[in-house]
Amino acid sequence: MRLHRARTTLTAVAAAALLTVTGCGSDKTDTPAAGTGTTGATSAAAPSVTGTVNVFAAASLTETFTKLGKDFEAANPGATVKFSFGGSSTLATQINQGAPADVFASAAPTNMKTVTDAGNGDGTPTTFVKNQLVIAVAKGNPKAVKGLADLTKPGVKVALCAEAVPCGAAAKKALDAAGVKLTPVTLEQDVKAALSKVKLGEVDAALVYRTDAKVATAGVEGIEFPESAGAINEYPIVALKAAKNAAGAKAFIAYVLSDKGKTVLTEAGFQAP
Prior knowledge:
Helices cover 43% and strands 22% of the residues. It contains 10 helices and 10 strands. The strands form 2 sheets. Strands 2-1-3-10-4 form a 5-stranded mixed sheet, with helices on both faces. The protein has a 5-stranded mixed sheet with strand order 7-6-8-5-9. α3 links the parallel β1 and β2. α4 packs parallel to α5. It is elongated.
């Protein structure tokens, strides 16, 4: 009897030891190896977006979008943002003619509608900012321009954007509201070109966006005028149906609409939508 009990006890101890060894082996198997499994994926922190994102954007977005593009690339090391800036009407035409673009940001809904009516937008455009006109003049305002009526004075040369361009359409609306008729010495295809005429001293004044006058601090100042409040432009943005980098397009738009994007835009003088 004692011998039988001893053998039984020894068998139980051996079985317990075996279970302990097996349990330890199971723990090792369940632990992910370095660089694999959940732990590895978390530590790798792979970027959510890769590849090139081609963005067609209104000329007035040049400075802000350039900054947002760099910030976006920093947040997504595998991504590169390439911009084509210009007049919204020109960009819309290029997109409808098949130019390779992933995102379109227009300075006015009219030019965006040209793209969406052609079936080239992917989803509904989102208005992300607004912008307002000022009268850009040389530092010191040598012609003493105080409002739109002063632009009609003898000897005052004015540059405007062409009416097909958002800044030109807004300028016409403001001038009509003020009852002011003037003949510009030049009609430009985007707001940067109109502003450059003031910078170069080729004209005395130009109707440009507040944001453009703000960034052109060297030699230029902006004169506010009341009629601009009735000619504010809305800026819509949309991903394009023919986008080669659809994921990148959506991610960039999300970044523009994010709190970080809003901060960059409002600091530049853009208004909330």
